[in-house]
Amino acid sequence: MAKISTAAGVLASTIVAVAATGTAMAQAGRDYVYIVGSSTVYPFSTVVAERFGRGTGFKTPKVESTGSGGGLKLFCDGVGVDYPDITNSSRAIKQSEVETCAANGVKDIVEVKIGYDGIVIANAIGAESVNLSRADIFLALAKQVPGDGEGELVDNPYRTWADVNPSLPSVRIEVLGPPPTSGTRDAFVELAMEGGCRTVPWINELRSSDSDAYLSICHTIREDGAFVEAGENDNLIVQKLEANPNAFGIFGFSFLDQNAEKVKGAQVDGIAPTFDAIADGRYPVARPLYFYVKKAHVDVIPGLRGFLREFSSERAWGEEGYLSDRGLIPMPDAERAGIAADVRNLKSLSMVSR
Questions:
Q1: How far apart are CA 17 and CA 28, in angstroms?
Q2: Full set of structural domains in the chain with CATH
Q3: pLDDT tens, 105-141?
Q4: Among positive and negative, which fits the CA dihedral 326, 332, 333, 334?
Q5: pLDDT at residue 12 in the model
Q6: Where are the beta strands (DSSP E) in the chain?
Q7: Quick one: what percent of the chain has pLDDT higher than 70?
Q8: Rounded to whole angstroms, how far apart are CA atoms 297 and 308?
Q9: How far is the CA of 129 from the CAs of 98, 117, 121, 136, 268, in angstroms?
Q10: Pairwise CA distance, residues 119 & 138, whole Å
């Protein structure tokens, strides 16, 4: 019995030593929090990172803007100091991404919803103000649009906004927007373009009879130069709108809020993109924002747990928090309290279909 006890003690000591060595290696390999992902969430994450870096003994987290899809790919590539601890996302993680994560050993993911944001269609402050319906947006930007006959589709023939709707300016359709890897792009096609697509009765009927055809029609953006992929840098879109008052740009409300002296948002279905209209659900092109955390990295990467607590604190994401000053639309009190508790408890994302 004494020999067995001795052997067990040696084994336990070995496990502790290996664990300690692993932690030390992790800390030696990277002593800061590493964050990738959404360009929309990037400014919020950066503000929290800077405050955290100033107010604690930890290094300021490193934040990179890679787009939601690109960030989730990097995040799901593996566990360890070579891979991000957190990825920001302007859409919910997809089931296929959860499965990719799991296949690469990323099996415990904490989902943190941080608030809401609107997607705006903006132009230069001195340009003509417009009121776009979601039907206008679909007809202006879809690759194929309804023809004259029932069930007929044609390549988009519209060249000017007035071609789409005589009440709109007679200027060439030119919209600068995010690439396919962007969560803002995903949300835009779902909320704005699909919203307009559904106003066509025969297309709306395809939702139940042929969902693949329905999504292809509603979500496919034209490729003839009317829509210009402008990358993940929303500040660059703002600069291009200043230079070209006939162009429009697609980005998050926070960038509109921060650049209100340069650009203005179009009304959508008669509702202007304002803080209050997004918060109370009246503005039709709005979505929740998230970030995702590797549970395996918490308490291994220095400062990660503290960063999570800072982001989910009332001083950050509360109604009077510093993130609301940057354009984040806060969640209701009860929702914030529940998510903050989940963050403290590191509640893992359920592996069920999203």
A1: 16
A2: 15-116+288-344 (3.40.190.10), 118-287 (3.40.190.10)
A3: 999 999 999 999 999 999 999 999 999 999 999 999 9
A4: negative
A5: 37
A6: 34-37, 62-63, 86-89, 109-124, 131-132, 144-146, 153-155, 175-177, 227-229, 248-252, 263-265, 267-268, 286-294
A7: 91
A8: 12
A9: 42, 21, 11, 15, 11
A10: 15
